[in-house]
Specification:
This protein is of the alpha/beta class and about 280 residues long. The chain has 14 helices and 10 strands. It has helices spanning about 40-50, 50-55, 75-85, 95-105, 140, 145-160, 165-175, 180-185, 190-195, 200-205, 210-225, 245, 250-260, 270-280; strands at about 1-5, 10-15, 25-30, 60-65, 90-95, 110-115, 120-125, 130, 235-240, 260-265. The strands form 2 sheets. It has a 5-stranded mixed beta sheet, with helices on both faces. A 5-stranded mixed beta sheet has the order 8-7-6-9-10, with helices on both faces. Strand 7 and strand 8 (about 130) form a beta hairpin. Helix 4 crosses helix 14. The protein is globular, with a radius of gyration of 19 Å. About 40% of the residues are buried.
Length: about 280
Amino acid sequence: MILIADGGSTKIEWALLDEDRTLRLRKNTPGYNAAMASPGDLNNILALHFPELATMGRNVREVHFYGAGCGSEACCTRVEKELADTFPAAEISAKSDMLAAARALCGDKPGIACILGTGSNSCLYDGKEITANVSPLGFILGDEGSGAVMGRGLIGGMLKHQFSEDITRIFHEKYPVDTAEIIENVYRRPRPNAYLASFAPFLSENISHPEIEEFVCAEFERFFTRNIAAYGRDDLQVHFVGSIAVHFSDQLKKTAARLGLRPGNIIQAPMGALISYHSGK
C-alpha cells in the first residue's frame, strides 16, 4: 500500500492507496509542523486520530509525506525516522508542502506556486523541481498573506482600536474574548499560529465592508512584494493553494492584477492531484 500525506499546521490529510493504486482510505487529522513539533508528535497524531492506519503499518510499502516545516534536510530526516517507527517496512520520503503545491498546481509546466493557508510560502518551479524559494520565515517574521498573519493583524488592530466602531462591535459580538485570554493563547499555549488563523473567517464574513477588503488586499500586496517579486518572473503565472487563497480569491486576483502579475489556478488543497501523481493515473 502507498500512504500519501499533505501535512499542514492546522490539519493533515492522509490518503491510503491499495496495491492496485486505487484509493482505500482518506482522512483528516490534527495538523503538524515539523519545524515546531516535538519528537513523537506525528506518531501520536496517528495513534490517537488514525488508529486504523497504525494497525496496517507493516503493509504500507511507500510513504510520501509532504509537510509544513519540511523545508530543511534535517526536518525531513527527522520526520522520516519518526514515521519509520509506525511503518517499518516502508520506503519513506518526507518533502516540503511547497513541492506538493507545485506538483498539484503546475503539473509538468513552469510556474510560480504559492501556499496561502494558516501559513504562507511560494516557490519558482521549472516543471520538475523547485528552483528558487523565498523563505516564508514563519508567522512572527514573515508568512505574509497567511491566515495566521491576517489574524494577528486583525486582533492587534482590535486591541489597539485601529478599526471603525462598526467593525469593532461586530468583532466583539462574534468573539467575546478579552485581552488576557488573547495573550494567554498567543504567548503561552501551543500552536499560536493556528489560534491566530482561527480569526480569519471574520474577515471573509465581512469582506463586503470596504475597511476589511482594504485590510485583506494590503496583506496580499505585502505577500507579493516581499515574496513573489524576488523571482523576477512576471512572464509566469502565479498559482495558489490553500483556504485563504480560495476564500479571498477575488481580492487575491485583484491585487495580483494591479501589480502586473498573472494569477492562475486557485485550489483548496493539493491531495487530489497528489493521488493522481503517485498512482500514475
